[in-house]
């Protein structure tokens, strides 16, 4: 009898604490642990579907490239699942500048065109670069500086997946020159001269 009671208690405990998913409740700030869960009664199938990757991004900009993200903010169903996805569009001469994702590793799949991609190791600054063709895949370890450049004469398209629903993004050039950090400090910390720093600040919208 005690064994039966114990089994019922175990089953009830497991079912009451288990959750199949945690669709993000996007109102309010997220945290490193993710967003809080929406009530199951408010979840619909549309929370698990994202349709934006079939549309090319607008590459008319300074980098001739576009990223269409399906991170937790755009795709609430990935909250807590340890994954997300995005589309890369690179026009001729397009580039995704040197950047990092502090929250997750990245996997690039080339859908169309040629993309030269690479990353830099943190231990010895070793550079790993490869020109990828249609169907090729390359991985970029979490937190490492990496980039993608259109290596052909036509548009290139890639799909990137991440090991986190909100991998984060910091583009090095914008981090340096699209803020109000003084030119004097930038010159000292980057070894660039005053003219170069001010030129880059002007191009990228920085001040100081």
TrEMBL record:
Disulfide bonds join 22-37. Residues 51-198 form the Cupin type-1 domain. Oxalate binds at residues 101, 106. It is found in: Secreted, Extracellular space, Apoplast. It comes from the Eukaryota. GO terms for cellular component: apoplast. Mn(2+) binds at residues 99, 101, 106, 146. SMART domains: Cupin_1. Residues 1-18 form the signal peptide. Keywords: Apoplast, Disulfide bond, Glycoprotein, Manganese, Metal-binding, Receptor, Secreted, Signal. The keyword Disulfide bond applies. GO terms for molecular function: manganese ion binding. InterPro entries: Cupin_1, Germin, Germin_Mn-BS, RmlC-like_jellyroll, RmlC_Cupin_sf. Belongs to the germin family. This is Germin-like protein. It comes from Dovyalis caffra.
